[in-house]
Amino acid sequence: MSRKSPPKSAPSQPIEAVANPELDAMLARALGKPGEAESAEPEAAVLEPVPVEPAAQHCGFVAIVGKPNVGKSTLLNALVGQKVSITSRKAQTTRHRITGYRTVGPTQFVFVDTPGFQTRHGNALNRALNKTVLGAVNDVDLILFVVEAGHFNLADAKVLDLLPANVPVVLLANKFDLVHRRGDLAPWLRSMQERHAFAEFVPMSAKNTKDIQRLFAICEKYLPQQPWMHDPEELTDRSERFMASEMVREKLFRLTGDELPYTSTVIIDKFEQEGQLRRIAATIVVERDGHKGMVIGDKGEKLKRIGTEARQELEKLWDCKVFLELWVKVRSGWADDDARVRSFGYE
Ligand SMILES: Nc1nc2c(ncn2[C@@H]2O[C@H](COP(=O)(O)OP(=O)(O)OP(=O)(O)O)[C@@H](O)[C@H]2O)c(=O)[nH]1
Prior knowledge:
Bound molecules: guanosine-5'-triphosphate
Main location: cytoplasm
InterPro entries: G_ERA_dom, GTP-bd, GTPase_Era-like, KH_dom-like_a/b, KH_dom_type_2, KH_sf_prok-type, P-loop_NTPase, Small_GTP-bd
Distance between the termini: 24 Å
Strand order of the largest sheet: 2-3-1-4-5-6
Protein name: GTPase Era
Subunit structure: Monomer.
CATH architecture of the largest domain: 3-Layer(aba) Sandwich
Shape: globular
Structural class: alpha/beta
Strand content: 15-25%
Number of domains: 2
Region (G4): 174-177
CATH superfamily of the largest domain: P-loop containing nucleotide triphosphate hydrolases
CATH topology of the largest domain: Rossmann fold
Number of strands: 9
Helix content: 25-40%
C-alpha cells in the first residue's frame, strides 16, 4: 500500500553534547500536559466518523508492538472504543494478531495488536507468537512502540531491533500515571532518542480517554490519502467464536493468578446462534492434572466463576443471551508440539 513519507525526525547524534532545539521542542510538547487534549473540541465530535467523498478519505495500518505486559491490548481496546483484545496482569495474554478499526473524522485507522515478543523460551508456542509479531510490523504506515514510561530493558531493546527502518515509529511511553514526577522523564526520553530516531514521543496512559484522543490526532498525519477499507461501523476482523474463546481465556488468567502456567488455552467445541441466543461449549486445555484442579477449584467454584464472568461480558458485548458450557482437559506438552500449536489456532 502507498505510504506517506514520515515527518523529519530529530537527528540521532549524541544529544547531550549538542544543543538541539528541535528535540527540546519535541520533549517539551511530549511532557506538556498528559491527560489534557490539545484540541478543545468535545470528545464525541472528535472521535466520530465524518462521511466524506472517497477521494478525501485517509486510511492506513498502525501496528502496536512491545514486550509482554506493557499495555498493548488495553491501548487497542481504548483506540477501537470496545473490547477486541483481552487483557490481564499476566504477561503473554495476547496470542494472536488482532485487528481493530476506528474511523475518526475523514480518517480510518486499522490497528494491528501483536503478542508481546517472547525472548525467554524457545518453545513452539513462542516461535509461533514471534512470527506473528514480525508479520505485523512490515507493511504498516505507522508503528506504536509501547514501553512503560521511564523503563527500557533488554526485552524492549529486542523488540526495537526488529522494527523496519522505513516505517515511522512513535515511542509510546505508557502507564504515565505511575510516574510520580513528570520532569524525571525528560532525561529518559533523551536517552530514548539516542536508541532510535523516533518520529514522536507520547507519554500517556492507555486508560486515560483524553490521552487516547490526543493519540488519534498524532497518528492521523501518518496515514495516506486513500479510501476507507472497512465500514466505519465495523470494529474488528475477529469472529464472535474467536471472541468467545478469548473471553474465557481472559477470565481463566485473571481468576487463577500466577499459579496457572500461561500455556493453558481454550478451544470452542460448539458455537450456535438461535435468534437472540448464542449456545457455546468450550474446553480449557491445561498441561498437567494438577493444573486441572486449579481451574476447577473447590467444588467446581472456580470454573463456575470463570464461566459466569465470561458469559456476562459476552452478553454485554453482543447484547444478547448466552449459554456457556465449560470443560477442562489435560493435554501435556501441547505448547512444545508444533502440530498441536497449529491445531489450536496459532499460526
Ligand atoms: N497503571 C496503568 N496500568 C495499565 C495501563 N495500560 C495497561 N495497564 C495494565 O497493564 C497490564 C497489562 O496490560 P495488557 O494490555 O494486557 O498488556 P499487553 O502488552 O497487551 O500484554 P501481553 O498480552 O502480555 O503482550 C494490565 O493489568 C493493564 O490493566 C496504564 O496506562 N496505566
